[in-house]
Amino acid sequence: MAHIIATTNMKGGVGKTTLTVNLATCLAKYQNKRVLIVDLDTQISATLSLMPPGEF
């Protein structure tokens, strides 16, 4: 069964993207988990940090 972890906060600049990307990376690399990040932020910061330019 899948686990869902949501990182939310209405205020900007609190580290949501950094936490999300680092947590997903650690779960995938060290816990051998399959990870899906759904980036709902209009700035698409998580998408830009995880995908090479021009890949989305």
Keywords summarizing the entry:
56 residues; mainly alpha; single chain
Plain-language structure description:
The chain is mainly α and 56 residues long. 38% of the residues lie in helices and 0% in strands. It has helices spanning 16-30, 45-50. The termini are far apart.
Please provide a brief summary of the model.
The protein is an all-alpha fold and 56 residues long. It contains two helices and no strands. The protein has one domain (1-56).
Residue windows where pLDDT falls under 50 for at least 5 positions: none
Radius of gyration: 12 Å
* Tally of distinct domains: 1
Strand content: under 5%
Mean pLDDT metric = 89
Shape: globular
Main sheet specs: none
Question: Cα distance, first to last residue?
Answer: 28 Å
What fraction, in percent, of the residue positions are helical? Answer: 25-40%
Order of helices and strands: HH
What's the total count of β strands? 0
Number of contiguous helices: 2
Category by helix and strand content: mainly alpha
Topology, element by element:
Blueprint: H1 16-30, H2 45-50
